[in-house]
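*** Backbone structure tokens ***
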Amino acid sequence: MIVSPMPTRFRRTGFTLIELLTVMAIIGVLIAISIPAVMKAREAANRTTCTNNLRQMGVACMRYQEQLGHFPTAGDGDYVGPSFYAVNSPYVGWQQDAGWGYQILPYLDEETVWTGAGAVSPTNGVNALKTPVKFFFCPSRRQIATTTYTNAAYPSQTAYSTLKGSAFTVFQSDYAACNGSLVPPAVGAGNGIVLTQYTGSTTSPARNVVQITDITDGLAHTLLLGEKAANPHLASVTILNEDDQGYASGYSGNGATTMNLNTIRFASATVLPIPDPAVTGPTGGAFGSAHFTSWNALMADISVRPISYTINPTVFVGLGTIRGQELIDETQLLN
């Protein structure tokens, strides 16, 4: 008897269209679930770095005032760079023309940048302006960045006379010091911690400094430094007089339209903090950040506090003054 062979069973070598679509749908759901979690974790890490940056700068400010007897100043004028009394020897304390960011470099272990990398004056100041320091950047906003500043008046010291009109490379900063609640104050005025040494006079500047004993509102209730409002994603890339002159910029407080607010901001009821997406041009001196619901603020006691963009204006003003005798409700900082 002849037995017929069994029919060969068909073996599939791939997936059906329905199976592929199902797998793709599952992968899509997993990605949709994981991306927010990854972004949240990244923002948390970035915020921690930002907080640590401020804390390191706070320690530097405290070491500065312990050694020199007063807090760093806002420098002497809007369009000035680092000033030197000899090659590789910057002026210190209230005699330094550049702003607080430059003044605290030795206390951030950045002596090489502070002295201009050993170059011959005036190149030493140019080197100091263009050398990035990681503490001045919040990773939520941008990576360490430089920009080119071309104003013919900057820097304005005699030592830079041959370089006026040239294009200067400066590294930017995501942080600013609090000058107080007055916007803008009169020449040489300000009711915050970091004050200008500019008096409008062509003679030597006044000693317009804040000592730790001057802060009678309490160190924990007085704003020293904070994140500044900026938006590097604007089409113009930089904001005139607010994010274009670099970390070492000075400040005169003379009320002019060209007043330099790169490293100075105000705790004012009329200039409240704002997040980056709300920045479409000059802010008039607002604090702010790239973080979602609040910005980081360094108090004079070296504590770092998150402060809401919707903080009560009266409480905000109280944080900016050193002896206003305002009562600060801690629960309102994030309200």
Observations:
- The two ends are 94 Å apart (CA to CA).
- The helical segments are 17-68, 100-103, 111-114, 123-130, 313-320.
- Residues 66 and 212 are 9 Å apart (CA to CA).
